[in-house]
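User: Here's a structure from my thesis project, written as structure tokens. My advisor, Dr. K., wants to see whether a designed sequence matches the one we expressed. Can you design one independently, without my sequence as a hint?
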């Protein structure tokens, strides 16, 4: 048994047991099947949505919004994080204001964004962008600020230009922190998307949950919740694979730095 297969089985053990107990309790009549539909009913609802093409329509709309919002957050946060990381003096001017905005959750802005931008895609993408901005910005600034000073001294000694130092020293050093920020930012974007779709949308996973509430169909609501979790998990997995592909030296460094456990 490979290590990957073993870890996968260990990760699936607890969810499998919980779903099995849930299904058994439902069949035995110990749970109210209207308030908490059995897993089999939720799966049937998902298959019905997939068969009619409804699931793909809602999922595609949600993924489009997250893609646009996350892309905008990345292209806004990355250069600003680099700027404040390279020029610590700029933090004195910008950090207080950015810290103030960071304390305001995206959901608090939803009514104002709808008022300013309407209920179309612009307001939803703006909310998603706002949610994903700060994790990317803060981790980028942290990665740049904590670049090893010895590396910068060596680069200057070899006569590298400021741009070459940024590309060959700062960027590789900050890349792990940037990827952590991007991973967190994507998670924040995905969660804020659902809140935006709950308040004003004609399609999307959040709208699907809202539709289930209006139609008094808990199985439809839980099907939407299940799709949120599974899609977010899949996106996070893809991001981890991308990080391992683009930053192969990080795994090597972690294996070298983390000592193996030795029995007494």
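Assistant: Designed independently from the structure alone:
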């Amino acid at each position: 048994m490979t290590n990957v297969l073993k870890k996968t089985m260990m990760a699936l053990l607890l969810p499998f047991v919980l779903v099995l107990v849930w299904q058994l309790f439902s069949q035995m009549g110990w749970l109210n099947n209207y308030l908490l539909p059995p897993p089999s009913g939720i799966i049937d609802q998902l298959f019905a949505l997939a068969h009619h093409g409804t699931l793909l329509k809602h999922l595609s709309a949600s993924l489009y919004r997250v893609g646009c919002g996350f892309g905008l957050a990345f292209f806004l946060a990355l250069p600003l994080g680099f700027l404040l990381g390279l020029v610590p003096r700029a933090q004195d001017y910008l950090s207080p204001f950015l810290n103030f905005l960071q304390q305001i959750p995206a959901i608090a802005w939803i009514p104002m964004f709808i008022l300013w931008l309407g209920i179309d895609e612009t307001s939803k993408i703006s909310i998603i962008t706002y949610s994903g901005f700060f994790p990317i910005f803060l981790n980028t600034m942290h990665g740049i600020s904590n670049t090893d000073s010895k590396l910068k001294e060596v680069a200057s000694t070899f006569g590298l230009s400021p741009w070459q130092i940024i590309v060959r020293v700062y960027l590789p050093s900050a890349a792990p922190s940037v990827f952590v920020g991007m991973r967190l930012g994507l998670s924040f974007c995905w969660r804020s998307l659902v809140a935006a779709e709950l308040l004003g949308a004609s399609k999307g996973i959040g709208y699907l949950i809202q539709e289930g509430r209006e139609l008094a169909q808990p199985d439809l609501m839980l099907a939407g919740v299940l799709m949120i979790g599974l899609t977010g998990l899949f996106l996070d997995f893809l991001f981890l694979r991308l990080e391992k592909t683009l930053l192969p030296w990080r795994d090597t460094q972690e294996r070298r730095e983390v000592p193996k456990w030795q029995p007494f």
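When you compare it with your expressed construct, this may help: The chain has one domain: 60-245.
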